[in-house]
Fold this protein.
Amino acid sequence: MTPAGWKIGLALGAGVVIGAAGAVIFSRNSPELKKAAANLLSHGMDLKEKAATFMSTAKENMEDIAAEARSEQEKRKAGAEAES
């Protein structure tokens, strides 16, 4: 198995262990724990939304820059052809 394969296997194994531990903990029906988990998940969702907004804005900015670069390239090509 390659080193990358080992890393994937270890990550998968860790995920299974953490998931099993979470199932055992939540099976105890602790209202405080469920409330804390819901609160944590809510904050995680907020963070995901903020990250998605940031990435969308960054993508739009990069698309604008790429469009400006294409325009400049076309102008340069047209100028070079006119000189020839």
The CA atoms of residues 48 and 54 lie 10 Å apart. The helical segments are 3-26, 31-83.
